[in-house]
Amino acid sequence: MNTKRVTRSRPGRLIAAAVLAVAVAFPLGVTGAASAATTLTVAQALAAQDGRTATVTGYVIGQPTATTTVLTSGFTADTAIAIADQAGETGTGRMLYVQVTAAWRSTFGLLTNPSLRGRQVTATGTLTAYFSHGGLKNPTAMSLGGGTTPSPTPSPTPTPSPTGTAGPDAYYASAAGKTGPALRTALHGVIKVQTKLSYDQVWDALKDTDQDPANPANVVLLYSGRSQSKTSNGGGVNDWNREHVWAKSHGDFGTATGPGTDVHHLRPEDVSVNSSRGNKDFDAGGGAVAEAPGCYTDADSFEPRDAVKGDVARMILYMAVRYEGGDGWPDLEPNDSVSNGSAPRLGRLSKLLAWNDQDPPDAFEKRRNQRIYERWQGNRNPFVDHPEWARSIWG
Q1: What percentage of the chain carries pLDDT values higher than 70?
Q2: Angle between helices 363-371 and 199-209 (to 10 degrees)
Q3: What is the mean pLDDT of the chain?
Q4: Is the pLDDT of residue 36 over 60?
Q5: In the predicted model, what is the mean pLDDT of residues 229-247?
């Protein structure tokens, strides 16, 4: 009879055992620990304010100070950041308020690090209301980009993960096998997806992207080649400033967010050397440029030093493919003229293509491209990754 009872009840006992096993593995209130392995969007985190532990990635919008108030400048503290799925988000209802505890403030507080605004951050913590608003509190990990670090690392800045997980081959998958106009169209579709920086953020970006590999306190100036303190930026004599390699007057885009703030063609340069280049097209010849050995200039053109001729060419070609006139900005295009004035054209194309062949990408240029992709804009310069594509498009 006992045997019969065991036989009859076995299905029920098996079900009960399974339920018990699930309950042990995922007790109430801890299910979020398992979900933390999968990074949530801000929208998903806002919909899951139930005390679970989760990892969330978003772009830093500003400093929350009340339920519906987020400062985007004039930051007052390092204690909280608001993040969103879009870098340009303005609706506080689509932002997640992230508490920044003491261990993380020196790296992720906006008062100390105002340049964080617009950059991607990943945080792991408890999904619960903060400022009576959807939030993430008591972070156990915070990092730049799409990855996380296992424990607080207040200084130096944690090494970020790429904004996209794909390597260069996967990044350009839609361009595979294409040539000529079809290649150009495919590349435009890839690289136009980017985070756009403010002109103030460019200062901080250049201090990172153009860092001297031999001295992390310095940047390397593009034309002069001089290694100079990161803090000596500004408008004074011998300061460095932001050189627009595609001169901003060639298309009249100025310094507004867009081509005027695209770090792929902005480089640190000595103030007076920058002035010597002005808005001239690129070509060979002229008189020597003071403070920039190996550079030459005349009335209508500028020749960079040999070590960066290819860099200059690839920056110009990037701008031509990135800005095709379809997003409210001019249709930029290189041509074979050195008399382009304010037209959205820049030359001399034949010389730029020769420089691209003559000076292939070096370690500095490749690191710069990767850094812009990982930490600042989330897009790449295809001609640094594949310099042969220049001839494929322009012949």
Answers
A1: 85
A2: 140
A3: 86
A4: no
A5: 96
Closest to 229 measured CA to CA, from 218, 239, 240, 221: 218
Residue showing tokens 């204690």: 79
Residue 243, C-beta contacts closer than 8 angstroms, at least 6 positions apart? 222, 223, 266, 267, 268, 269, 274, 277
CB atoms closer than 10 angstroms to residue 203: 18
Residue 249 CB burial class (10 angstroms; 0-12, 13-18, ≥19) = middle
Residues with Cβ within 8 Å of 150's Cβ and at least 6 positions away in sequence, in order, are 141
Q: Is the pLDDT of residue 91 over 90?
A: no
Q: How many CB atoms lie within 10 A of CB 164?
A: 16
**Is residue 13 over pLDDT 60?**
no
Nearest-angstrom CA–CA distance, 115 and 199: 11
Beta bridge partners of 124: 55, 141
Output Rg (C-alpha) for the chain, integer angstroms.
26
Reduced to 3 DSSP states, what percent helix, strand and coil does the chain have, rounded to the nearest 5?
A: 35, 20, 40
- Please, what is the Cα angle at 381 between 380 and 384, to 5 degrees? 120
Polymer length in residues for the chain: 395
DSSP code, position 370: H
Average pLDDT over residues 370-389: 95
- pLDDT value at residue 167: 63
For the chain, first and last CA: distance in Å?
Answer: 91
Both structure tokens of 246 = 């595609």
Q: What is the phi/psi pair of residue 67, to 5°?
A: -55, -40
Q: Give the H or E element holding residue 297.
A: strand 296-297
CB of 121 closer than 8 Å to CB of 61: no
Question: Residue 201: what pLDDT?
Answer: 93
Cis peptide before 117 (omega within 30 of 0): no
Q: Name the pairing type of β-strands 301-303 and 296-297.
A: antiparallel
Residue 261, phi then psi, degrees to nearest 5: -125, 15
369 contacts 385 by C-beta, under 8 angstroms: yes
